[in-house]
# Entry
Amino acid sequence: MLGLSYPYDWGFIPSTRADDGDPLDALVIHDAATYPGLVMRCKLLGVLQTLQETKQHRIRNDRIIAVPEDSHRERELSDVQGLLPEVKQELEKFFAATDELEAKTLKSLGLAGTEGSEKARPASREGYSCSRQTSDERRHRDV
# Structure
């Protein structure tokens, strides 16, 4: 697991709270260079629905999947189902691997598009913002 890094920009949606008590997690698919603390307007594609288990808890810990609102390369994507099957599988495996590093088990419950993502509905308004942080910053933030 040494050298595990996020495949795209990773952050959260400000002013939200997920079942785990943290802001809603968000993965922004694009290939432009960004930096920690950046806030960008994004278009919701869907959500990777997950169940996270530790020795003490069993909670939903969904991950929002989005693209930058003004992206030229990703402008054709309108729903998470438009992602290549290989990309969907890689995302599910990646998030399962990140939880293994923290003595957690993550079970994928599948990908849902914008219509079927009840957990993401509060954050799914058009043009929401995703803030990006490094994983170290995320672990040390106050909620």
Remarks:
- The mean pLDDT is 79.
